[in-house]
C-alpha cells in the first residue's frame, strides 16, 4: 500500500510549531533504524532521537502506510497540540511533511507510560 501523500505547500494549519527537515529526522534515527523504536500506536512507530546537536531528546512518530489514523488526524493533532501547553500534556514541538512522510516530533517523556505506572508494568526505566 502506498503512503498517503500531502503537499507541504497545501499544508497550512494554524500552528505554533515549526516544520522539521526530514534530513534531520533521518539523521536522528539513523534512517528510522529499528533500534531507535520505543513504541508503536495507531499512528505508526515511535522512535527516540536526539536533535539540536545532541541537546534535545525527542519522540518521533512516523505515520505508517495504511495507518488507522491518517492525514486528517495528522493535521488535527498538529493544530490542537501546537496550541496547547500544559505540564501534564506532552508537547508537540515539530512536524515534518516531506517525500510522502508525515512525522510528528514530541518532547521525549522519560520514566515510562501512564499505563506502566497504573498497572505496574515491568519497565526497567521506572523508579
Ligand atoms: N513523547 C513520548 N515520549 C516517550 N515515549 C513516547 C512518546 N510518545 C509515544 N511514546 C511511546 O510510544 C508508544 C506509542 O505511542 P502512541 O502515542 O503512538 O500510541 P498510543 O497512544 O499508545 O496509541 P494510539 O495512538 O493508537 O492511541 C507509547 O506507548 C510510548 O511507549
Automatic annotation (TrEMBL):
InterPro entries documented for this protein: ANXUR1/2-like, Kinase-like_dom_sf, Prot_kinase_dom, Protein_kinase_ATP_BS, Ser-Thr/Tyr_kinase_cat_dom
Give Gene Ontology CC terms.
Answer: plasma membrane; plasmodesma
Q: Give start and end of each Protein kinase domain.
A: 32-127
Instruction: Return the PROSITE patterns for the record.
Output: PROTEIN_KINASE_ATP (PS00107), PROTEIN_KINASE_DOM (PS50011)
Which residues of this UniProt protein bind ATP?
61
Pfam families, per database record: PK_Tyr_Ser-Thr
Keywords on this record?
ATP-binding, Kinase, Nucleotide-binding, Serine/threonine-protein kinase, Transferase
Source organism, top-level taxon: Eukaryota
Q: Which GO terms describe its molecular function?
A: ATP binding; protein serine/threonine kinase activity; transmembrane receptor protein tyrosine kinase activity
The molecule here is called: Protein kinase domain-containing protein
Amino acid at each position: 500500500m502506498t503512503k498517503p501523500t500531502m503537499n507541504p505547500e497545501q499544508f497550512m494549519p494554524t500552528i505554533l510549531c515549526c516544520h522539521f527537515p526530514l534530513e534531520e529526522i533521518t539523521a536522528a534515527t539513523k534512517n528510522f533504524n529499528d533500534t531507535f523504536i520505543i513504541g508503536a500506536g495507531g499512528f505508526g512507530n515511535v522512535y527516540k532521537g536526539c536533535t539540536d546537536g545532541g541537546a534535545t531528546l525527542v519522540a518521533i512518530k512516523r505515520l505508517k502506510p495504511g495507518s488507522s489514523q491518517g492525514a486528517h488526524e495528522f493535521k488535527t493533532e498538529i493544530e490542537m497540540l501546537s496550541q496547547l501547553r500544559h505540564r501534564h500534556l506532552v508537547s508537540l514541538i515539530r512536524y515534518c511533511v516531506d517525500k510522502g512522510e508525515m512525522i510528528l516530533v514530541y518532547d521525549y517523556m522519560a520514566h515510562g507510560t501512564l499505563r506502566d505506572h497504573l498497572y505496574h508494568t515491568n519497565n526497567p526505566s521506572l523508579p
